[in-house]
Amino acid sequence: GTVQFGIPYGIANSKGQVEKKEAKKILDYAKSSGINSIDTAIAYGKSEKCLGEIGLDGFQVITKLPEIPDDCGNLKSWVLKHVKNSLNTLSVESLSGLLLHRPSQLLDSDKNELWSTLLQLKADGLVKKIGFSIYTPDELDNLCNLYKPDLIQAPYSIFDRRLDTSGWLGRLYNENIEVHIRSIFLQGLLLMNKNTRPKKFNKWLCFWNKWDAWLLENDVTPLQAAISFSISDNRITKVTVGVDSLEQLKEIIYASNNNINKFPKDLNIEDSKLLNPSEWP
Q: pTM to 2 decimals?
């Protein structure tokens, strides 16, 4: 994940936006470690520009269309213009994936041509897969009754299992729809200890205490637990992680080599006020 390459991002981010020199080191190490996909978005500030200048040979690239404004004019032209802009900025000939940042717009009466436009981009070879970036599984209830995406990107973590408990993870897997998960660290919140965790999250202190106790009891770090949980489910195609430095990426890759099989069931939280950063106090 490369949002940090374009804007300062994440509650645990104390360094701000990643500089291009560091971003290049991160991508070089990622490639040498077998990481083959880059996730970005038009809305991520200068992320696409940074990636294009560094070079993306050997990577599959997924980007996202931003919310479509009401005054966009001709919708097909607007979409095509933004996709071609992204291809040019990223310096790639085609996109591995194109996601809608606001897929609910497919249900708007004035956006009838949106899905057919995305299908045409696939037919023209500019995009290999199309899909949705969602915040809650509820969004899929209406969308997937009308459209068959190739790819879904959604939040999922040891605290946030809504994609599974809703039944959608199993359904997507059975329908051969790729699932890419993000927010496996809750922007780094899960990796903080009780001394560095912001006090505004003390509302969920009972969960933090359970989390800290389970980690201590099983002699694992928060990073090892969060990574192991995310890669332990074969219904998930890819795990998206963002880093602020090369050192963080090395730590994540090292932690991914741990084999943890059992995870506490009582850490499954449904409260969107904790799970959705846009709702954080």
A: 0.92
